[in-house]
């Protein structure tokens, strides 16, 4: 409920939304503290440690995005794409 209120009342997008998206808590915390300091790599989010793990996840997300996009372009309904 607090997130809904935050989204409705603040003009700035809440950085903690990354937690709901599955980003590593350490990376969310570092980003909130200083988004430019200590970034090891970036993709779907900025990773501040575990460069290899983050890069693998970015690649996995890219493969999934491509597969879902192809299916959507073929006309597959959203209800069938949801896993």
Kindly provide the radius of gyration, computed on alpha-carbon positions and rounded to a whole number of angstroms. Answer: 16 Å
Strands of the widest sheet, in order across it, are 1-2
Q: What would the principal axes of the Cα set say about the shape?
A: flat
Number of DSSP E strands:
2
Number of domains: 1
Which structural class do the helices and strands define?
mainly alpha
Characterize the biggest β-sheet.
2 strands, antiparallel
Give the low-confidence spans. Answer: none
* Intertermini distance: 25 Å
SSE sequence, one letter per element: HHHEEHH
Helix content range: 55-70%
Enumerate how many helices there are, as a single number: 5
Give the overall pLDDT as a whole number: 88
* Residue share in β-strands: under 5%
Q: Could you give a quick summary of the protein structure above?
A:
By secondary structure, this protein is mainly alpha-helical.
How would you describe this protein?
The protein is mostly helical and 83 residues long. The protein has one domain. It is built from 5 helices and 2 strands; from the N terminus they run H-H-H-E-E-H-H. The chain has a two-stranded antiparallel sheet with strand order 1-2. The chain is flat, with a radius of gyration of 16 Å.
Topology:
Layout: H1 2-9, H2 17-20, H3 25-33, E1 41-42, E2 46-47, H4 51-73, H5 78-81
Antiparallel strand pairs: 1-2
Q: Keywords for this structure?
A:
2 strands; 5% strand; 83 residues; 58% helix; mainly alpha; single chain; two-stranded antiparallel ribbon
């Amino acid at each position: 409920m607090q997130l809904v209120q935050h989204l409705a009342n603040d003009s700035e997008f809440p950085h903690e939304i990354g937690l709901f998206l599955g980003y590593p808590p350490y990376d969310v915390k570092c980003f909130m503290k200083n988004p430019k300091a200590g970034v090891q790599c970036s993709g779907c989010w900025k990773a501040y440690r575990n460069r290899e793990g983050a890069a693998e996840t970015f690649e996995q997300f890219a493969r999934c995005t491509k597969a879902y996009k192809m299916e959507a372009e073929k006309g597959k309904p959203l209800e069938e794409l949801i896993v």
